[in-house]
Structures are given as structure tokens and as C-alpha cells.
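task queued by scheduler; priority normal; single chain, no ligands, no partner chains; default sampling; output format set to C-alpha cells
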Amino acid sequence: MNGSLGFTLKPARGLFITLDGYWIGVKDRIVITSNITDSRLQDPNIVGAGNEVESARFFANAIDTETKGVDLVVSYDWKLGGGNLNINLAGNYTETKITDFHFPANLQTPQNEFFESDQINIIESLSPKTKATLGLNYGIGKFNFLVRNTYFGKVIRDGYPFGGVQEFTPKIVTDISVGYSFTKNINLTVGANNVFDVFPDLQIYENSYFGVFKYAPVQMGTLGNYFFGRLNFTF
């Protein structure tokens, strides 16, 4: 069951504003279960000799979810210094909640083992509820300059069953690039993503697998900055 509402405004020349709200309900959503331990999995009379396992997990229509959110986009074109400056602001707020659980009665597995807190965390709070991007794109002659800042809201990661619950603070990542068009068909672009080498907060020790993984794969990820050169041909 879905619903959405949106509108676009053009209050001044060069200015566009778009606002969209949405509600999405999913019944019997397919998710992967937690690791289920059951003595029957180790009983050769049930699973067959040589097929005994300590635990198992599988895909199941285990939950109902409700997602609510709003998207805002503001774009403005401005003639500046013989060129054109485009200012683009895009923001999003999304919240997903689990509204019901469905567990096979014949499995005889408690709810908190069938779908543990770490799996609930993946659905409800491991992705930022708030994300926004401010991009400045200036073109003049054969040159094009881009600066883009992306804001990642806070996230929460549950390190169950070996770690703890940790909140990661909001971060801002900056991308830059410079492009030059040799002809209408050939363009060279050089730049950097995450130019200031921003990472998520350091993981608490119990979530870092004895200090092996200093950062968790949340928000902007764990790759740091990335420099590139790109040559485009258009035919």
C-alpha cells in the first residue's frame, strides 16, 4: 500500500522548488533471518547424517514495514561573470519502522532469535534518516567547475551478538571536479570524491573485531578519498 503527494513551484526566473512526500507500507516483507540455533539442526535423524549444522538462516516474509519520508529539491540558475552558476540543494528525510512480525509457529524459535536486534537495526536505523546535498556547478567557456557537499545524518549500529550499540555522528563529505571541453565531443574531467578524507566515527572496540576494522561501513563508507581523471567521447 503506497501513497505520495508532491508539487513543484517556480516562484522566480531560474528558481525551481520541488517537494514530495510519501508513505509506503509493505506487508510480508522479505528479509533474512538471524542465525537460528536449534537442536534439531544437529539431529542426524532429522537433517540426515553428515548434514548437521550449528545454526541456519534463511529468507522469509517475516515483517511488515512502514516508510514515511519527504524529498525537497531547490535549484537556481544564476548568470555570473560571463558564465552560468547552478545552485542545487536536495534534502531527504526517511523513516522506516517495523509494524508487525510474522514467525512460523512450527519453527518453535523465539521471536528474539528468529529476528534479532541487529536485523531490526538494519531495517530501522542503520541508514541515515536525514541526507542532504548542496552542489555548486559553474560553467564558463570550455570549463566546468563542481563543488558538492553531502551531509549524512546520524546512524545507529548494533554489533549484536559480539558487540554493542553505537551511535555515529553526522558527517559532511566534499567532492570537487574540473572539466574542460576540447570540442563538443571530447571532454576531460579531473577531480576527487571525499577530498578531505572523511570517515565515520571510530568503532567502539567490541564492534571492531579486536581492532581489525577501525571503521564501520556506514554513512559514506570506509574507502576515504578517491581521485580520478575521466576522458569522455561523444559520438
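post-processing summary
- Residues 12 and 66 are 37 Å apart (CA to CA).
- The chain has a mean pLDDT of 90.
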